[in-house]
Design a protein that fits this description.
The chain has 3 helices and 5 strands; from the N terminus they run E-E-E-H-H-E-E-H. Strands 3-5-4 form a 3-stranded antiparallel sheet. The protein has a two-stranded antiparallel sheet with strand order 1-2. It has one domain (about 5-80). It has helices spanning about 20-30, 30-40, 65-75; strands at about 5, 10, 20, 45-50, 60. The chain is of the alpha+beta class. The longest helix is centred in the C-terminal third of the chain and has 13 residues, at about 65-75.
């Protein structure tokens, strides 16, 4: 997989449609467990795959769905279940 890096050494997800949970965690700070939770309730889009002969599957995360989840929280923190975000103007 060709990984783009910005000058700060962080993973850049620009132009990436699907990626692994570890890159989402590094880029957005959303834990793998939280990603699975959000995927189960349909908040973000996950795609599960199992290679032939493999014991475990692997999960790909749709980057655009994660960005939409974050944007909803920025616009209306109360609209995102489990969100710890607060409005900086009101403090609520």
């Amino acid at each position: 997989m060709n990984q783009k890096k910005d000058h700060g050494g962080n993973d850049s997800l620009v132009g990436i449609e699907w990626t692994r949970t570890t890159r989402i965690e590094r880029a957005f700070g959303i834990s793998r467990a939280k990603q699975y939770e959000l995927g189960e309730d349909g908040t973000i889009t996950l795609s599960r795959h199992r290679r032939p002969g493999a014991k475990h599957d692997f999960v790909l995360v749709n980057v655009a769905s994660v960005r939409r989840y974050i944007e909803r929280g920025i616009r209306n923190p109360r609209a995102v279940p489990g969100s710890e975000l607060t409005n900086l103007k009101t403090g609520r």
